[in-house]
Design a protein that fits this description.
Two copies of one chain form a homodimer. Chain A is of the alpha/beta class. The first copy, chain A, has two domains: about 240 residues, Aldehyde Dehydrogenase, Chain A, domain 1; about 150 residues, Aldehyde Dehydrogenase, Chain A, domain 2 (3-Layer(aba) Sandwich), CATH 3.40.309. In chain A, about 45% of the residues lie in helices and about 20% in strands. Chain A has a seven-stranded parallel β-sheet with strand order 10-9-11-8-7-12-13, sandwiched between helices. The longest helix of chain A is centred in the N-terminal third of the chain and has 17 residues. The first copy, chain A, is globular and about 70 Å long. Chains A and B meet through helix 10, helix 15, strand 13 and strand 16 of A and helix 10, helix 15, strand 13 and strand 16 of B. Strand 16 of chain A pairs parallel with strand 13 of chain B.
């Protein structure tokens, strides 16, 4: 299969998506949910088509000598496709985020005002070589009445295209027009860049992936972006921290799933606490194979620590490495987070309520923790049902984003001839 | 007074604002309200200082031969300054938009979750030569716990600077650090452009003014923007429109305040309605000095109409001129709005409930009206208490924005050692 710039026309696709989004807006929630359930069935039915295409991507991946973790994320199976289908069925069950009347009132002149949630319109999804996102994102978009344009990583292009073809075939048997799901079948960067600036046709861009991908979208887009996910999260162990809580939280936040964005990347530790509890800390670090990159003070206390440089404070290791910084007080801890944090999730461990209160008030991040692991910043863990991603921006949506993040509002005014 | 690039350092100002925003965050709402009331008193007390500076701007304006309307907006008086002060007092009375718990729940493991509103941090306000915005915007920012960086139009620079100096003096007698209000005392475009890209220090940019100003901000900013205000609003008079309602709404939306963004700029009229009611319409247009720019069909029906070109359909006249387009049906009307509308306010006049329902569902705009004037898209008219502007974007805030648009959220998690 040869994909070149000449056989994709992103603008035409975006125009089709916009048109389809208008048709989606007048469907009932039942019609949208039925379509999702049908897509789930079709994915399970046609799984072999998808696995054949996936094999091509895997073969290319083996040639390119990708890491085992990368190949694992790329690799599909009958069971994984069944999981995708189950995901769609779960989304179908969720409450409809559109058509919700957020507030309504009547003016003195009798004009009725309703503030109601409506779909955003067209979502542009830019993601890495993870075929599961193709299904997930489509499910969330259609559930919330939006059309979607998918641009996945080139190394999964065959799998993604097969998934979309199967879904298109499925949509033909539903009320949702298949043009509501557009797939950019190109590995050409220009195709993606076109998507970034089509303000007329695309209502929002959602980049899902590593920091570089997100940065590229933010810098080049004029279409509004929902930024997700980079997490340089800190655990601050205060002078008054309980030893057991501190160590449990640190180990959990660092090692439970080191590659996710809510994992801890830096331990900030009060010097007095460190002096008193170094033995317990050192044992825990050793038992859990945590490699410390420490500042000068830490190097003196923790054996086998390597020196931390400027890049360590800013680094998302996504491994069991951790940067450790010793501080004199809460103020220094907050200042360090202010300088290096990514406004994702930040935790303080302390029995001092006043210190906790100050930390929660002053640290600028989506999620602030007192005596708990940063790992809870997650739509699933918090009971959101579905998660679009974790927003690290302040406008529109912050923190774990559920379906409501894919909606906007309209003010509907019903009158009998009112004028001002 | 000579202002050159060399004597302003926008980055240093932004850093000061960020620092001050942290201090603001720990003040109580009472302390912030007291500061607003004190600023009101100080403005009234020192009005002469402001009037002296204003005289310089007026003199420059007269030299540059500005329009009467422009000079009127620029011109201050003791009474106008008293109005500014009253505005601050009114804002002080409003409900605090921060510290509101939007939702809270407890996970099975006992972790307490609270989603609470907090200030955005630092607001960059870019506006035209309207000294009232200097006071208004400062009041709204401080009320909501934000620091603000003001960049007003060059032609009001002396007035704005005097207002800020008076407010700074006032703030010294309050708990709010005066660094929370920064004024860019430069007419240099580069100074403004610097502000557009300081993502680290500035949390949001709010452009307030005409389309060109807003466009310049959107295109050059990497800091998130709250887009406000351009309104190319349409009144669609359907086949089944009541004559009296249609004419009252049209005249009101066009002539009540032609220069504001919720005024109507285009009448879309069903050909059958026009054929039946041309006499009444022509009389109303004449009585109200409304100049019609019509399509070919309209030119045949309405005397003294001038031909409308492509630019008329897209034009915000902000005068008593109106573009008039005749259509065959609702679908054509919606398509016209889709092509030329700015997603601000759109109205249908009809007694046909089904047509109204379709219009409200399919037209993509912040405010949709059935049988009422578009003039109600206004924070004041809708009872919002204060209005930051009218958002024509879909993310974060859409339509008239009250104080909540100047906040974001934090998830606060309180635990007893919970891990995943």
């Amino acid at each position: 299969m040869t994909l070149t710039k000449s056989n994709v026309n992103v603008e035409a696709q975006a125009i089709e998506a916009k048109k389809a989004s208008k048709q989606l807006m007048v469907l009932s929630k039942e019609e949208r949910n039925e379509a999702l359930l049908h897509l789930a069935d079709v994915l399970e039915r046609d799984y072999e088509t998808i696995l054949e295409a996936n094999e091509k991507d895997l073969e290319n991946g083996r040639k390119k000598d990708f890491t085992e973790a990368f190949m694992d994320r790329l690799s599909l199976s009958k069971e994984r496709i069944a999981d995708f289908a189950q995901g769609l069925r779960d989304v179908a069950k969720l409450e409809d985020p559109t058509g919700q009347v957020l507030s309504d009132w009547t003016l003195e002149n009798g004009l009725q005002v309703e503030k109601v949630t409506v779909p955003l319109g067209v979502i542009g999804m830019i993601y890495e070589a993870r075929p599961n996102v193709t299904v997930d994102a489509t499910g969330l978009a259609l559930k919330s009445g939006n059309a979607i344009i998918l641009k996945g990583g080139s190394n999964a292009i065959n799998s993604n295209q097969a998934i979309v073809e199967v879904m298109h075939k499925g949509l033909e048997e539903t009320k949702i027009p298949k043009e509501a799901v557009q797939f950019i079948a190109s590995t050409d960067r220009e195709a993606t860049n076109q998507l970034f600036t089509m303000k007329e046709h695309v209502d929002v861009l959602i980049p899902r992936g590593g920091g570089k991908l997100i940065q590229a979208v933010v810098e080049n887009a004029t279409v509004p972006v929902l930024e997700t996910g980079v997490g340089n999260c800190h655990i601050y162990v205060d002078k008054a921290a309980d030893v057991e809580k501190a160590i449990n939280i640190l180990v959990n936040a660092k090692t439970d799933r080191p590659a996710v964005c809510n994992a801890a990347e830096t331990l900030i530790v009060h010097k007095e606490w460190l002096a008193e509890n170094s033995t317990a800390l050192i044992t825990a670090l050793k038992e859990n194979d945590i490699q410390v990159h420490g500042d000068d003070h830490v190097l003196e206390v923790i054996p086998n620590a390597v020196p931390a440089g400027e890049e360590d404070w800013a680094n998302e290791y996504l491994s069991t490495d951790i940067a450790v910084k010793a501080v004199d007080d809460l103020t220094d801890a907050i200042a360090h987070i202010e300088t290096y944090g990514t406004k994702h999730s930040e935790a303080i461990v302390t029995e001092d309520e006043k210190a906790a209160k100050t930390f929660l008030a002053l640290v600028d991040a989506a999620a602030l923790y007192h005596n708990a692991s940063t790992r809870f910043t997650d739509g699933g863990a918090l009971g959101f049902g579905a998660e679009i991603g974790i927003s690290t921006q302040k406008l529109h949506a912050r923190g774990p984003m559920g379906l409501p993040a894919l909606t906007t509002v309209k003010f509907l005014m019903k009158g009998t001839g009112q004028i001002r």
